[in-house]
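Residues pack. One example:


***
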Amino acid sequence: MIADNVDVVVIGGGHAGCEAGLAAARLGLKTIIFTLSSDNIAFMPCNPHIGGSSKGHLVREIDALGGEMGKNIDKTFLQSKMLNKSKGPAIHSLRAQADKLAYSKEMKKVLENQENLYIKQSEICELIWEELDKDKDVFLCNEGYEKKITGVKTVTGLIYNCKSVILCTGTYLKSRCLCGEAITYTGPNGLQPSNMLSDSLIKAGIELRRFKTGTPARMDGNSIDYSKMEVQYGDSPVIPFSFDTNPADVQKEQHNCYLTYTNEKTHEIIRNNIDRSPMYSGVIEGIGPRYCPSIEDKVIKFPDKIRHQVFIEPEGTHTNEMYVDGMSSSMPEDVQLQMYRSVPGLENCIIVKNAYAIEYDCLVSGQLYPTLEIKKIRGLFSAGQFNGSSGYEEAAAQGLYASINACMQILNKPYLSIDRSEGYIGVLVDDLVTKDNLEPYRMMTSRAEYRLLLRQDNADIRLRKKGYECGLISKEKYDALLIKEDQIEKEIERLKSVKVGAAAPIQKFMDEHNSPRLKTAVSLSELICRPELDYYSLSEIDPDRPDLPADVIDQVEINIKYEGYIERQQRQVDKFRKMEKKKIPADINYDDVLSLRLEARHYLKKFKPVNVGQASRISGVNPADISVLLVYLENYNRNN
C-alpha cells in the first residue's frame, strides 16, 4: 500500500534527523521524519552537553545557516562556559550542559509545529529505488549514478514515495550494547535497534562497516560526596549560542559541575580485570573513537598517567542522575562499581545506569560526494554517525548540510558548498569525503588549517549569506548582518584614522595602564594592538566613539589585534582556492593518466575527487601525483 507521496524522507529523529527535517520543511518541501521512538526526538544517549572545543564552532555555524541546535540549547541549558578563554580567540568555544529531557521535549515541540513536517514512529526496513537506463538516463549515468531513489518501506509494509531520502540512523543499525560478558541487542539506553535496513543498503551496493562508541555510568546524585570535589562554575554573563537569542534571555541561575580524579587504585582495578573487558577480550568487533577513549583505554595506553580527570555533571533539573564524564567503560557491572567507588567523592556511589559500549553499522569511506549524497544512488543522502563521525554537533551539522543539498537537488538549484577555508562544517564534510576514516571521526580545532579565520565569534559573517541564499535565513536577518558588517568596517577605519599624541593626559593614561609612553602620535588602532590595552579601556581617550553593540566591538578588536596574522592566513586561503577551482571531469579515466602511481590511481578511483585540491588531501596521493594530474588536466582541457 502506498501510504503517502512526499518530497523528503528523513530516517532517524536524532540530532542529524532533526536538522535535516526542519531544513527541508522550512524550504517548502513536504517532509516526513521516521523515528523508532517519537518520545526520544533529539535524545542524548551520551553526554548531555552541546558545544565544547571546536564543537561550539559547529553549533554557531549551524545557527548561521538557519539550523535549530543553538536556539534549542539556549532555551534548555543548565550551565554554560566559554572554553579556552586564556588562549587566542581562534579556539574559544562555547560549551553548555543541557537538561537532556528539556532539550528533547523542546526540540520535539519545534518539529511538531513546523509547517510541512510530519513525524512518524515506524521502522524503515527497505529503500526503494529504480535502476537507471544508460540510454534514457544518459546525464545521470555520466555523473556516476547507477540507481535513483523512489521511496521507502516500513516494517508494517507501507510504502512512502519520495524524491530524496536522508539517512540519519545514528548508532541504531544492527546495534548491540556490551557490558562485560553481557550483550544485549538494543540501541543506546535500551531503545529499539534497527535490524533490517542494513540488508537493504547492502543490496543497493552500499558498503558498511562496524564502529563502536561508549558511555559512562549515571550515578544517583544523592550518593555522591561533592565536598571531596572541585566545584566547576558556569560563566557570568552567559554568551548565547544562537545569534538570534537575546543575551538577556540566557542570564539565569546555573547548576554546578564538579571535578575529581581517578587514582592508582582505580587503575589497578582496571588492569586486574582487563581480560573481562569486551574491548580487550576480542568480543567487540567495531573500532572505537581514538579521541574519546574509554577509561580502560586510558589506563592501558597511558600507563605513565597517575590520574585522569573525571567531571560529574547534572543530567537535568527534574532528576538526581549525574553523568560521570571521563569514565566511559564496557567493563562488567561488578568491576564498574569497584572502579567508580575508588574515585574521591564516589566512595558510596549508587549506579542508576551502567556504562556500556555500543556497536553499530555505518558507511565505509569513499562513497560520498561533497554534497553528502551517496555516489551510486541519486537522491540518497546521509548524515551523522552513519557517515562514520561521532558527536551530536557533527551529526547536526551534517544533517543540515545534507538536507539543504537534497532540497537544492529537488528544486534544481545550486548545491550548498562550504570549503575548508569557510567553516568547520567544510572541514568536517571534506574529511569525511576524502579521508579513509578507520575510526569514528571527531571534530577538533587542530583539523582546521585556517582556524584563525574560522572563529566561533564570526560564524554569522562567514556563513549567514549562504543560509540566506539557500532560503533558511530571512531577508530581515540578512539585512541585520549587512548593517553589522558595515558598522565593523567603519569603526576599524575610524580607529585607524584617529591619532593621539604625546600630550600629558595621554601619557598619564599610558602610565595608569602600565603601557609604554608615546614618543610620537599613533592611531587608536595601534594602541589596541598593545596587549595591555583594549577597545573598552581606550574609551577614556576616545570621546567621539559611536555607541556600538558588543558583538560589533568584539569583531573590531579581534580584527585589529590579529590583523597581520589574519592577512597571512588569507594569503594561504587564496592559494588553497586556486587548487579548488581546478575541476576534475566526472568521467575521467585515471588509467589514462600516465606516470600516476598505482596507489594514487587506486585511491583517486575510490574517492572520485571533484577538484585537484580535494585530490591532494586524499591519503595515498602525494605531491608528485598531483603534478602529474595537473599536466594531464591541462592537456585534457585543451583537447575538449
Notes: The chain has a mean pLDDT of 95. Residues 484-570 form a domain with the Arc Repressor Mutant, subunit A fold (CATH 1.10.10.1800). DSSP finds 21 helices and 25 strands in the chain. The CA atoms of residues 596 and 625 lie 6 Å apart.
